[in-house]
Amino acid sequence: MPLRVAFIAAECEPWAKTGGLGDVVDALARALGELPAATDGLVDVFLPRYRAVPVPPDTGPGRKLRVPDPGSLDGATDVTIVDVAANGYRLRLVDAPEAFDRDGFYGPPGGGDFADNAHRFGLLCRAALEVLRLETDRPVDVIHLHDWHSCPAAVYRDRPFGDDPVLKRAAIVLTLHNLAYHGWTPAEDLSQLGLAPGDGIVRRGADGLDLLATGIERAEMVNTVSPGYARESLTPEFGFGLDRALRAKGDRYRGILNGLDTTVWNPATDTDLAATYGPDDLSGKAACRADLLTRLGFDATDDAPVLGMIGRLDPQKGFDLLADAAPRLLAAGARLAVQGSGDPKIAAALRSLAAARPDRVALVERFDRAMARRIYAGADFFLMPSRFEPCGTGQMISLRYGTPPIVRRTGGLADSVVDEIRGPGEGTGFAFDAATPAALAEACEAAMAMRAAGGPAWKGLIARGMAVDFDWHTSSAPQYVELYERAIALRRAKG
What we know:
The protein is of the alpha/beta class.
């Protein structure tokens, strides 16, 4: 019988997104819904109805539901479940205005977190479980949690819903997209979750509860988003304090490389590009390059290499390495096209470079989907010098767009990019080891030298990169089905 799967997540593209979490939740849910033998379309995604979530005008009023709520005076609160037909799955918005009708998903626009985030995401989880326990006609088989925001559901499944005939049989799978954020809830805030030290969930005398660690402990199966990062996360250096908990899972913890939505990311159909192109005809890529350079104020007739980089301006992503390597790269003839915002110090350094050399450095300091696509298509190389990277999709997109990536050999980047320097004639991009400006510059210089030489070697590199299959349907989604089946077997074995 096909599986019924329910996601609980804080983000889902295109309704609510701040980063890769939203992309993965949407693309994976859609891919699973389009595997009829596995799910027959029985995939739900529970998401908060934030103020910024666009709801289609023809959407019905929703279903009223009373949910246990430790933050309410009478112990319960009314929410509305608004079902929206998505592409391949059902989006189920949890509409609770007091919790979610605010500017910002996790905190106010100026920065920081909302003080009641434990209550907000606990309410999301309780609402999702209340819906699922009432739908007995086709009981849920797997509750798929994503990052700390959904981990209260693992606690609630075991208590207070431990004897519920629907929920007690449901297996939990937890996907770790970012180990850096744990959802730490101090003891004084545990009441927001309906918990307290010494209650059988939180140990007596505890300073609080690490929601992500608790989710790892209680889930039947846990995974992260690449095999390389799964291995790295078992070490103190990359485990962010969770390496011991992950090692304790043994073979119930694994890495599954994220896929890519090849209908969304396709240079042959991308309407934001100046010209479309594909692996059999790259002529349109030259037009994309000229269009990008013109938009950035660069000389479109100059063949000097263009290095593109997109993302959150953050040391984790290696933007500081690029800023420090920039003088050497500019001296080598490179031009830089950077899009992102974030760390003020990094932004100031890149801004200063762009002001000093506007003909060779451009900083697009905003979120701009169309410009991002133009950089993927129009740059000659794409940079991802991350200090750590669970997976990343930028390198996958750039490969598909015929723009060889230059990455640091870590996590999912090591899993998805084959280094041409180590294996001439076999690579899809370029990789380096040390998280230093010099190592980044050296890899870029090797890549630029290969482009300058041109010929069959350069053409072969691009062709191999564009041929890599990252499609969710054929690569990652079937592995998640196997993960679900293992989790179900483990849960049923518990009786």
